[in-house]
Design brief:
The chain is an alpha+beta fold and 369 residues long. The protein has helices spanning 8-20, 40-49, 106-111, 121-140, 156-159, 217-229, 244-247, 255-266; strands at residues 51-53, 59-64, 88-93, 96-105, 172-175, 179-180, 185-186, 189-190, 193-194, 203-207, 249-253, 276-279, 282-285, 288-292, 306-313, 317-332, 341-354, 361-366.
Length: 369
C-alpha cells in the first residue's frame, strides 16, 4: 500500500509542532510603510468609535434637517390649525468589503522546525497579511472619492469638502461635498442627500491665506472662526485631552503646516498671541494638538488644496462594521490540485458614515484664489 504522506488533517498538527519547536529568540523586525506614519485614524475609529450592525443591504441613519416652522406668537382664544411637518431625512451609504489573505506551503512549515528554522513562518505571514489589510483601510480614510470606483469605502475627504474658488474666503458652511475624481467635479450629493434640497447639509470651509503654510494673522483668525462655528471646545488644561469630551476632537495637518506652527510657537509673544502652544512634544492650536497625517503632505489642488488643515469631530463621523465580519479570519482546506498550500482569508465589511455635516468638522486650504 502506497504511503499517503502528509494530509490536510495533519497540517494543523504540523503547524502546532513547528510553533512549539520555535526558539523564542529567533524573531524578526517589521519595516513600516513610510506613506502611513501611524494608524492614527484606524486605531481611533475602529477601537473607540465603531458601531456594529447586524443586517441590511445598506447602511442608513436619519438626520433632522430643519425645524418644524410651527412656532408662532398667538392671542388668547386665537384659532389655529395644527399641522404635521416632516423634518427627517435619511442618510444612506453602501457597504464596503475589504479582503486580504496569506498562504503557507507545507515545505516551509516543515523547514521551520528544530534548530534549522529561521522565523515563525506562520506568524510572519499572518502579520504581513493583516498589516497589509490595515494599511488598505487606513489609506482609504484620506483617499479622494471616485464615483467610478465601486469598491472603495467613503473617507474623510468625501464628507468634509475643501474650499473652492468663489466661496467666502473667511469661512462659512459652504462645501456641498468632497471632490469626485471620477466626475472631476465637487459633489453636490453625499450620503444620498442633496445640498440643494437640504441646504444645511454642508461643512465649514475657508481659504488659508498663503501657499507656504505660514500661520499668519489672517489664517489664524479664519481657523478660530471655524472653531467657534463648529462649537469646538478646547480643554482648559492640556492634561484634559484624554477626557472623552475632548478626545473625540482632532486637528489634522501635513508636515509643512505643522513645522510652520512649531516655528510660530517658538516665536510666541504678545504680537503673535496665545493661540499656539506646545505640550509633550506636540504643537497645539487652542488646546488641541495638530496631528501629522503624511497623506496630507502632497498637494492636491482639486481634492484638498495645498497645506490643508482638518478639524474632525468623531461624534459625527464613525465606522459602521458588520457584526462578526470585521477582520474575520477563515482558513480553508488545500485545493485539489495544490494540496501542499493552505490559505487563510481575512475580511472586513464596513463603511464610514457622517450623521451631521455641519458639526462633523471643517477644513481650510490654499487653492490660489
Amino acid at each position: 500500500m502506497a504511503t499517503q504522506g502528509l494530509v490536510r488533517t495533519d497540517f494543523s498538527d504540523l503547524i502546532i509542532m513547528a510553533l512549539d519547536a520555535f526558539p523564542k529568540d529567533k524573531g524578526y523586525e517589521y519595516l513600516f510603510d513610510a506613506t502611513v506614519h501611524s494608524f492614527e485614524l484606524g486605531n481611533r475609529l475602529f477601537k473607540t468609535h465603531k458601531v456594529q450592525e447586524d443586517g441590511g443591504t445598506q447602511i442608513s441613519r436619519f438626520v433632522n434637517y430643519r425645524e418644524s416652522g410651527t412656532a408662532q406668537f398667538v392671542l388668547p382664544t386665537q384659532v389655529y390649525q395644527p399641522g404635521m411637518v416632516n423634518t427627517m431625512a435619511q442618510i444612506t451609504i453602501p457597504w464596503a468589503f475589504a479582503h486580504g489573505e496569506w498562504s503557507v506551503v507545507r515545505f516551509e512549515v516543515q523547514s521551520c522546525r528544530g534548530e534549522e528554522q529561521l522565523v515563525d513562518i506562520v506568524k510572519q505571514r499572518q502579520v504581513a497579511g493583516e498589516v497589509d489589510l490595515a494599511l488598505l483601510v487606513e489609506t482609504a480614510l484620506w483617499q479622494t472619492y471616485d464615483s467610478t470606483d465601486a469598491t472603495s469605502p467613503l473617507g474623510i475627504t468625501y464628507w468634509i469638502g475643501p474650499y473652492a474658488t468663489g466661496q467666502t474666503q473667511a469661512g462659512a458652511f459652504q462645501s456641498t461635498g468632497g471632490y469626485d475624481a471620477g466626475a472631476a467635479a465637487m459633489l453636490t450629493t453625499t450620503g444620498g442627500l442633496s445640498s440643494s434640497t437640504y441646504t444645511r447639509w454642508k461643512n465649514w470651509t475657508f481659504d488659508w491665506n498663503n501657499s507656504t503654510g505660514e500661520w499668519d494673522e489672517t489664517s489664524r483668525q479664519r481657523l478660530g472662526r471655524m472653531y467657534r462655528n463648529l462649537r469646538f471646545e478646547a480643554p482648559i488644561l492640556a492634561t484634559d485631552l484624554k477626557q472623552p469630551r475632548y478626545d473625540k476632537l482632532r486637528l489634522y495637518g501635513g508636515q509643512t503646516l505643522i513645522e510652520m506652527a512649531e516655528k510660530k510657537a517658538i516665536q510666541q509673544n504678545d504680537q503673535v498671541g496665545a493661540d499656539l502652544g506646545a505640550y509633550q512634544g506636540a504643537t497645539l492650536y487652542r488646546g488641541l494638538p495638530i496631528v501629522w497625517q503624511s497623506q496630507l503632505d502632497t498637494a492636491d489642488t482639486s481634492a484638498r488644496g495645498t497645506n490643508p488643515i482638518y478639524l474632525v469631530n468623531f461624534d459625527y463621523l464613525y465606522p459602521i462594521v458588520r457584526s462578526g465580519a470585521f477582520f474575520t479570519r477563515q482558513t480553508f482546506p488545500a485545493p485539489q490540485y495544490q494540496p501542499d498550500v493552505v490559505t487563510t482569508h481575512v475580511d472586513a465589511s464596513y463603511n464610514i458614515i457622517c450623521t451631521n455635516r455641519q458639526l462633523v468638522g471643517g477644513m481650510g486650504c490654499y487653492i490660489g484664489s
